[in-house]
Amino acid sequence: MASIATQAAPAAAPRQFDKPTLFDVPISNNGARCRFIIYKKNIERQIAIESPMTLGGLKSEAYLALNPLGLMPLLVLPDGTCLPESEVIASYLADKYKDEGASFDLPTPELRAHDKLVQRIHDQYIAPIQGAMYKDMEIAQRAKAIERIAFQLDLLNNLVKGPYVSGDQMGLADAALFPTLTFVRFILPQFFGWKDVFEQRQQLGQYWATIESEPAGAKVINEIEGGLQKWKDAGRWQERGILEQVAQKDYKWSY
Q1: Taking the complete model, does pTM exceed 0.70, yes or no?
Q2: Contact 213, 206 (CB under 8 A)
Q3: What total number of domains does the chain contain?
Q4: Per the domain annotation, does 141 fall within a domain?
Q5: From residue 72, how far is each of 23, 51, 67, 126, 245 by CA, in Å?
Q6: Does one domain contain both 237 and 162?
Q7: Which of 208, 153, 202, 154 is closest to 179 using CA atoms?
Q8: Best CA proximity match to 185, nearest among 136, 158, 149
Q9: Is 118 in the same domain as 92?
Q10: What is the extent of the structural domain holding 62?
């Protein structure tokens, strides 16, 4: 019989969740998509928001047991159901709490299709390359991605109807789009030489002003910008050689 000292320690019991819990951090633009809906619906007391670090981080055994992808955001329900992916979580929140706070239900099939289109453009063509603004990357790859971000911003400028993405009423595309615009607006003028992200994209600029004027929008923007400022203070763009790359004039960085 093995001694007590050599016996394997019993596995920790899975954590129980008393209410829906969103695992996220303030700087996450994908998580902000979900936080914005929570704030607009005034359901902050009904849904807990925690950092993945409360479970040991994204790659911890406890977190991976909930989301094997090791990504955030993640919504865990009291019955143990785990919902990863920001689009899925946002749709769930808008549906589950449809009778509380702001509505994200658009009134016509055409407006709903437009809203889906903008979400699709964001999720498929901007989100996958947004790391070019702040991650380690080979210079040519970074320059090409920045060019594509500029192209997608031009496209979105023509698609945003105003005052919200799909007109007079807010939809789920709004929750997806403006957090990423927060990254764009903070990073590109400071570190890539853009004069003004919205100077040649006035419709997008007017849209930004609308969102920024709302308490829930301003709250999310402040959360993200606070995280970005910490990155800046820590010298992220210098340490990763991004400023050195941008100084090379063989590539175009500003649009």
Answers
A1: yes
A2: no
A3: 2
A4: yes
A5: 7, 9, 9, 17, 30
A6: yes
A7: 208
A8: 149
A9: no
A10: 21-96
